[in-house]
Every structure is written in structure tokens, then in C-alpha cells.
Amino acid sequence: MIISVASGKGGTGKTTVSTNLAASLDMPLKLLDCDVEEPNAHLFLKPDLSEPEPVFTFVPQIDKERCSGCGACVDICRFNALTLIAGKVLIFPELCHSCKGCLEVCPEQAVAEGHRQLGTTAAGRRGTIIFRHGCLRVGEAMSPPLINLLRKGVEPDELVIIDAPPGTSCPAIASMKNSDFVLLVTEPTPFGLHDLKLAHEAVKLLGIPCGLVINRADIGDGEVKRYAHDESLPILLEIPFARRIAEIYSRGQMLVDEDPQWRQVFITLFSDITEMVSAPKVSQ
Amino acid sequence: MKELVIISGKGGTGKTSLSGAFAALAENHVICDADVDAADLHLLLKPTIRQRVDFLGGGQAIVRKEACSGCGRCLELCQFDAISDTFDVDPISCEGCGVCYSLCPEKAIDFPAQKCGEWFSSDTRFGPMVHARLGIAEENSGKLVSLIRREARKLAEHNRREMIITDGPPGIGCPVIASISGATAVVIIVEPSVSGLHDMLRVAELITHFTIPGLVCINKWDLNPDVTATIEKESQARGLRVVGSIPFDPIVTRAMVAGRTMVEHDEKSSFVKNIKEIWQTIMASDALMNRPENVILPVLNR
User: Fold this and answer.
1) Which DSSP category does B11 fall into?
2) Please, what sign has the CA dihedral across residues A145, A1, B89, A111?
3) B117: contact with A, CB 8 A cutoff
4) Measured between CB atoms, does B168 come within 8 Å of chain A?
5) Which single residue of A84, B9, B214, B259 could bond B203 by disulfide (Cβ 3.0 to 4.6 Å)?
6) For chain A, what is the domain count?
7) pTM value?
């Protein structure tokens, strides 16, 4: 079972929920931090991380001897990563999406496989948790290839918790797709509600069952609850706002370590999710 | 023309709330919401939309089954696992590279441009605003960000306005790079937590990479004074000036619920006085004022 923890708005508590959920369950599981632009889960979970391993993607390399300057590679590239200047091909590796069209069409076999570093991945353990994260190289624009790589190698019978990046565009979708359940985390404010609606739309588009965690549940207004009710989006957990919780978080500590009663809260959250995932699907 | 971009690395540190406050305090400016993926600034500024334009992104492959011979060439070519054994294209996985479309031996694949979102040119009580809405699960967020920043610049030039205030997206990836490239200066909004600090350092590295001057503003500084002190030290070490610190105050949420910027909500409070001083410090900073006019256009990226 794959559970993704997602939200439209950033800073609503995705990492808090995913790390505390993982740490509460006394069973083998994987926690994947797919927020590769700003990975934070390791700061709370503190696994014994391995040395970061570099990850690369394809970019073209031109053999100047062979290149006839015909421009076939330039024509097929829809990302402006190749251009022809005075009969010579110039490459902008940062714009390349690794579609390999240039490699395919070159009549002179003048395009070779080069590479661009996307970032790094590292893995580690904490108790029964196998943890893995990706870290996008500073200056690299494309996070989905690194996210896809993190998500590879997941077996169907494993329990996997994914800490997704904020938003509803390609990085969030790459993290959530093919999940069995999406846990949406929001705060009950106008910004929280607006972005929750977007995230909920995205999850509906992907056809994945979902539930809601309301963080800092006693700030703001009642509109998020009204929305959840109108949309039949089950509220699985409410975490109150307390200065103490904010301070625990700010120090990089986990709720379940500081206050063991939270463990039962997250175990209940997990059993609610399991129940929803295994319930027979209601035909639409 | 000056452009100030508000970013944070980590989400939810207060970018939009502060962008709204700065939009209320600035004079002779244009407002740009570059967080096209989860735009929220309009909830505070209540823009009246004057112009609405479709945003067309790249193409998306569609196999015409009646013309398809089932040769499997497209499956072989696709690097994104977007084509199924039955030659259906998954629009979410399709990268829009068009390689299958260009190389299908039967010419059985169409590649129509897709509407990926909309952008708007609007009026607000604080001046003109350019904002956008990327479609759910769409790509091209960097392209849309670059586009609305160009439109904001055009609008500012046309209306003889001297400044653009841009509310940026979280993270350090394509929409962030598209938001900051060619900007005059950025303000990094950071909260004092280990994750806030970690993410701020990454975004600080990013602006150094693109040689854009940065300022730092610490939000909710009193939640962890120790980390606040570390942020101040690390900022100084990187030549990033800390323009001010803001205490935790429920006024921010109350203003948001009321659909107002925080400086409109309780004008006489010491909280608002502090925000005004921070804005004056930003406006007088070397990063913003003593930088030569920047004419580099945003890099087209996605």
C-alpha cells in the first residue's frame, strides 16, 4: 500500500504527518521524501543516512567530426535545447528533457549520450523504517525525473509513505500518482482552503481515494470543515494549534517522541486509512 | 525598473501574507503573483479582472487508432512510459516532446497544443496586478511564470510604474528559477525552524548561483530564538542582509480570514509599525536600490 501525504499549500504539515505516521507504526515500511527541492523529513526522522549518490539524466553530446550541421536534431527538439549557429549545433543542457529525439534522428550518428546531474539520493534506516530521499541539485529546474527515480523499486505488497512536494503541478503529480491513498494536509485558513480545493481536484483527477488532516485546527475559520463536509472528504485527524507543538517542530523533533500519546493518534489514523483502502469500491 | 521577488524555499513561511503587505505599502508599482501552481495573493487583493488570456503549453500526443498499424515504434521511442500496450497515451505522463508524433511511420499520432491554464491582467486597490492559474496537473509552470513576469513588466512600462512586486513559489525548481532570473533582488522569508533554516540555505545557494542579491526577513522569530540567531549568523556569512524580524501574531490569520492585508487590518498596532519599518529597510537597501538596471529577460524554462 502506498500512502502519499500531499497538500496544495506549502508549510501545512506534510512532513510532520508523514514522519510521525511512519515513526508510530511498529512495522517494516518505506518512507520516501519526494519533496526533492526542499527535502526535510530526514531532519526529523534522523536516519543513519548513507553518502549521497549522484543521479544523472541524458543530455545530448555532439561529435563535431561527424556532425554535418543538417539541423535534424534542432528540428525535433521541442524544448529549445539545441540550436544551429553558423552550421554548428549548440547545446543548452539545462533545457533538455531527455526525450532522446536528437539521438534518434541524427543521420550521421553524431549525437552521443552525455549527462547532466539532477541531484543526489541517499538512504538510511530508523528502526523498522527504510528511508530514502532525493535532493535536487541547486540550479537544476526539473524535479520529476528525480522523483520518478525515488519511486522506482517499490514492491506492490510493501507499505510506503510518500512525503510529497506542495502544489498540483508535475512534481506533486509525479509523487502522488499510483498511490493507493492520498492524505491531504491543510490548515483552516482562506489560503489553506483555496489550495486544498486545487489539491483535491488533482487527487480526483488521478482517481485516488483521499482523506483530510487539518493542522492548526483551531486557527482561521470553519470553511475548510464546511468544504470537507460538502465534498464528503473525510476528516481523519485534527491537530490543534499549540505553541508547544510549533516549538517541538522548530527544534526538529517529532511529536511521537516528545509526547507518546501522539503515537496512538497516528496508529488510529493508519487503521482508518487501511480500512478506507480495503473497503469495496462504491461504483459511481 | 526594479523587480523585487519574495521567495522562501520552504512553503508556508508567510510569502503571500508579506507580499500582500508590501503591495499595500509600496507606491507606483505593479503586483505579480508568480506562484501559478497555488496562487493565493488574489484572496487578499481581490483583483477585478480586466483581461483573461488562455495559456497554451506544449503539445500532447494522441494516437489516431484508425491510422495506427500497431508497429510499436512509439512505445519504443517514448522515454516517459506514457504510451500503453493498447496505444493509449496517458496525458499525465506525456512530456510533450513530440518524438512519437515526428517519427510514427504511419503519421498516426496527432500533437495538438494544450490549454494549460489562464493568466489575468487585473486592477486592485493597490494598483495593477498580473496573475495566473495553471491547470491542475499541468506542466509548463516555468513558462507561465516567465510569461506573466514579462506581462507585468510590460504593464509597468506602459503605466510608467517603477517597481514590480512578485510573490514567488516555494521550492528551488523550475517555477522558482523562472521567478527570480533577471530580478533586481529577492527577499527570502524564513521561519526559525530546522527545516526553515535548511530550506533557506538551499534557496540562498540558488540566488548566489544566479547572482541575484538577497535580503532575509525572519517570520515568527520568537517561536525559536536560538534558530533565529543561527539564521542571522548564516545570513551574515552569505552577505544577505536581515531586514527585520516579525513575531508570531494571530493578526496575520485574522487579516487573511477578513480578506485584507495585515497592514490594513490593525493599522495602529506595533506589529504593523514593524512591518512598515521592514518595508522601508527593503526599499532603502543596497540590494534593491544600488543595483544597475537589469535588462535580462526571464529565461524561458519549464
Assistant:
1) T
2) positive
3) no
4) no
5) B9
6) 2
7) 0.94
